[in-house]
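thought: fold this chain, then report.
action: predict
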Amino acid sequence: MARDLAILACTECKRRNYTTTRNKRTVATRLEMKKFCKGERRRTLHREVK
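observation:
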């Protein structure tokens, strides 16, 4: 399958808040998204962790 599970962690508080899927064939780098962090209580950058 081309879809892979990706876990997103906040770059500031390091909590793993979100899960999403990504296409391994088209996205070679790690995902980065601005999402709401409950610990920081604001929108922060979330990166994919392994």
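thought: worth noting. Strands lie at 3-10, 16-23, 32-37, 42-49.
final: tokens above.
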